[in-house]
């Protein structure tokens, strides 16, 4: 790999002054590669490994007694981790719980709030992650509603971003709109949406507001309760670094406590009488009501440790470094990569940008494959995006510099031309 024209020493000096630099030692990342895919799957930390090992040991030594004798007891584990997540979300502990998978939570939350909304149409956007649309459409069909009529899709003006004013306009145009459900960060371009503005606009028009926070929790601070957000969900395997298939999480504003979830299950029953096995469901007076089945301890335990890392670092410090890393990457693209066909598809305003940068290139698929073979782990999103994520807990400024150099080299040398474009998504 050849050096860029930019001075590598600048990146190294920034690393020397980085207050979060030491956190990289708590993660298992390849020594001979560059892991730029934390927005798809965060790496294992020693902390997550430790808490998983502890729960396995409790299972081995205690068996069923782990539900009451574990440290902490497994019976209230989901609520305990909800308490730990709440500060990252700007929420009270009772408003947050770990539960289910993200898609199950979308079904459960959208279904619940669609039933209590004044209207029966759901406002979404055309750049959503597909599973959100699958779930919303299914919830509409289950209520005898035609998704082609009741799914209100806000179009993008540029194929990359969604304008908040267009979301507001969609609410105004449909007098049957009841729920708006949007991502906090668009998964392809990395645009950070204005949660506060959209929520306020929804409430002014009598709609309920929910968000998919999968690409923001753990890298962007939230203030859900202060903004009055009605509900939200997210996964835990991206910036929360809880592992593949890790348990998801959800938020429900306290004013909705006592509602019966659309997908009621026994683990959402009030804890005090849960084991009386009553045939009548009594929801927990908290977000815990939206749990369905038993908490999966082995996919929840790593989250406990990974949250320790985040709390030690501080979400505000994480966000500050994330902005600095993505700004540095954007500078390198402009100064070093533009002549090789690269462009930035992510908003340049940090207030409108999440934690990753969309590098656009006509040969993005083949470039992504070439980068992976060089040990630069990125992912490709059709039609032309190399998603590159300098995650702040384990990525250095020198890593960003080196990743940009590899991006330049695979094009400058023609190396990407040896790969076939197969239409596969990594």
Write the layout of secondary structure elements.
Layout: H1 8-16, E1 34-35, H2 46-62, H3 66-69, H4 77-89, E2 96-98, H5 102-116, E3 121-125, H6 130-142, H7 147-150, E4 151-154, H8 164-173, E5 177-183, H9 195-204, E6 208-212, H10 224-227, E7 231-234, E8 249-252, H11 297-313, H12 315-337, E9 343-344, E10 357-360, H13 364-373, E11 376-377, E12 379-381, E13 385-388, H14 397-412
Parallel strand pairs: 1-11, 3-4, 3-5, 5-6, 6-7
Antiparallel strand pairs: 2-8, 7-8, 9-10, 10-13, 12-13
Helix pairs in contact: 1-14, 2-11, 4-11, 5-6, 8-9, 12-14
Give the number of DSSP strands.
13
C-alpha Rg (nearest Å): 22 Å
Which topology of the largest domain does CATH recognise? Aspartate Aminotransferase, domain 2
Number of domains: 2
Helix fraction, binned, reads: 25-40%
**Oligomer category:** single chain
Mean pLDDT: 96
Helical stretch count? 14
Q: What order do the helices and strands follow?
A: HEHHHEHEHHEHEHEHEEHHEEHEEEH
Are there runs of 5+ residues with pLDDT below 50, and where? none
What is the class of the largest domain in the CATH system? Alpha Beta
- CATH H-level name of the largest domain... which superfamily? Type I PLP-dependent aspartate aminotransferase-like (Major domain)
What's the overall geometry? Answer: globular
Structural class: alpha/beta
Task: Note the main sheet.
Answer: 7 strands, mixed
Strand content: 5-15%
> How far apart are the first and last residues' alpha carbons, in Å?
24 Å
Return the CATH architecture of the largest domain: 3-Layer(aba) Sandwich
């Amino acid at each position: 790999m050849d050096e860029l024209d930019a001075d590598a020493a600048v990146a190294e000096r920034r690393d020397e002054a980085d207050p979060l630099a030491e956190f990289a030692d708590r993660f298992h990342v390849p020594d001979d590669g560059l892991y730029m895919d934390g927005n798809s799957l965060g790496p294992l930390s020693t902390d997550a490994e430790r808490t998983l090992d502890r729960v396995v040991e409790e299972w081995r030594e205690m068996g069923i007694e782990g539900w009451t004798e574990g440290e902490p007891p497994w019976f209230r584990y989901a609520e305990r981790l909800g308490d730990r997540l709440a500060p990252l979300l700007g929420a009270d502990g009772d408003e947050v719980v770990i539960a289910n998978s993200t898609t199950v939570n979308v079904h459960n939350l959208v279904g619940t709030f669609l039933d209590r909304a004044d209207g029966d149409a759901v406002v979404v956007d055309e750049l959503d992650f597909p599973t959100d649309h699958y779930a919303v459409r299914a919830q509409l069909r289950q209520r005898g509603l035609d998704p082609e009529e009741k799914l209100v899709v806000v179009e993008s003006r540029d194929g990359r971003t969604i304008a908040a004013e267009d979301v507001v306009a969609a609410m105004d145009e449909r007098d049957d709109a009841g729920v708006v459900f949007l991502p906090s960060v668009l998964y392809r371009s990395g645009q950070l949406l204005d949660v506060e503005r959209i929520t306020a606009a929804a409430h002014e028009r009598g709609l309920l507001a929910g968000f998919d926070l999968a690409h923001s929790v753990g890298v962007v601070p939230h203030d859900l309760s202060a903004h009055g957000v009605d509900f939200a969900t997210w996964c835990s395997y991206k910036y929360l670094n809880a592992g593949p298939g890790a348990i998801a999480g959800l938020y429900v504003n306290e004013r909705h406590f006592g509602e019966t979830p659309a997908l009621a299950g026994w683990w959402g029953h009030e804890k005090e009488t849960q084991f009386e096995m009553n045939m009548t469901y009594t929801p927990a007076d908290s977000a815990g009501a939206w749990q369905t089945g038993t908490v999966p301890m082995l996919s929840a335990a790593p989250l406990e440790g990974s949250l320790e890392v985040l709390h030690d670092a501080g979400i505000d410090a994480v966000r500050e470094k994330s902005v600095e890393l993505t700004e540095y990457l954007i500078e390198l693209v402009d100064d070093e990569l533009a002549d090789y066909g690269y462009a930035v598809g992510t908003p340049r305003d940090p207030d409108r940008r999440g934690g990753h940068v969309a590098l656009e290139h006509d040969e993005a698929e083949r470039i992504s494959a070439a980068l992976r073979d060089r040990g630069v782990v990125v992912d490709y999103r059709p039609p032309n995006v190399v998603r590159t994520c300098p995650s702040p807990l384990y990525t250095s400024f020198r890593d960003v510099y080196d990743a940009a150099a590899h991006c330049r080299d695979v094009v400058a040398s023609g190396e990407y031309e040896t790969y076939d474009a197969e239409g596969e998504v990594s």
